[in-house]
Amino acid sequence: MALGEYLATHRTVVSSTASVNLLAKNPSDSGYELQIQCLASGASGISEVDVYRDVTVDSSGTSITPRNRLINDGANSSGMDIQHDATWSGGTAIYQGYVYSNETKTVAGTLETEDPDTFIWTGHNLLVEITNKSGSDSNTMIILTYMETSI
User: Fold this and answer.
1) Residue 10 C-beta-side C-alpha neighbours within 13 Å
2) Residue 108: per-residue pLDDT
3) Could you give the CA distance from residue 115 to residue 119 in angstroms, rounded to a whole number?
4) DSSP per residue over 72-85, as a string?
5) Pairing assessment for the beta strands 62-64 and 92-99 based on DSSP bridges
6) How is the chain split into domains, by residue range?
7) Collapsed DSSP state (helix, strand, coil) of residue 145
8) Residue 42 zone, left/alpha/beta (φ > 0; ψ -120 to 50; rest)
9) Which of 24, 95, 110 is nearest to 66 (CA)?
10) Which of 14, 24, 77, 106 has the most CB atoms within 10 Å of its CB?
């Protein structure tokens, strides 16, 4: 049973050689599975995009409250823990690529042929990190849309 479709975004200016990330954690007691519909990133300058599964969170980032995209179903809030700029280590790299100047890159979900992993099971996480390689400040955005279903 689908409980909701959610949108979480993080937009910021990233200085030269710095990184920004978005972490989606499915708590072990959530009772939900998360299916990614679209994970996209964009930047005004060339950037590396890396996606990791099951990273160790060394220090929590800033929480993001996902918005329920089902307008008539606003009562269902997301059971996921979504953060930006967490400090992390380890994990398994499942995607590595580039976002070129003024481009949006879809790195997971139904719109991409390089679909690395589209489910986050209970007790697991997924992190996308963008590293600015442009040599100057870059406007950067990470967009995550997902659906939660009861397990």
Assistant:
1) 25
2) 62
3) 11
4) GGTT----SEEEES
5) unpaired
6) 2-150
7) strand
8) beta
9) 24
10) 24
Strand partners, 103: 43
Tokens 């499942």 found at: 94
Q: Compute and round to an integer the Cα radius of gyration of the chain.
A: 15
**Residue 11: CB atoms within 10 Å:** 12
CATH hierarchy code of domain 2-150: 2.60.120
One-letter amino acid of 53 = R
What pLDDT is stored for residue 64 in this prediction?
95
Non-local CB neighbours of 13 within 8 Å, separated by 6+ positions: 137, 138, 139, 140
pLDDT digits (tens, 9 = 90+) for 49-72: 888 999 999 999 999 999 888 766
The secondary structure element, H or E, covering residue 24 is strand 19-26
SS3 percent helix, strand, coil of the chain, rounded to 5, is 0, 65, 35
Q: Answer yes or no: are the C-beta atoms of 31 and 150 closer than 8 Å.
A: yes
**CA distance readout (Å), 4 to 57, 75, 125:** 26, 10, 19
In this predicted model, what pLDDT tens digit does every residue of 105-147 receive, in sequence order? 776 654 343 454 578 889 999 999 999 999 999 888 888 888 8
Is the pTM above the cut of 0.70? yes
Which residue is associated with the tokens 């409250």?
Answer: 65
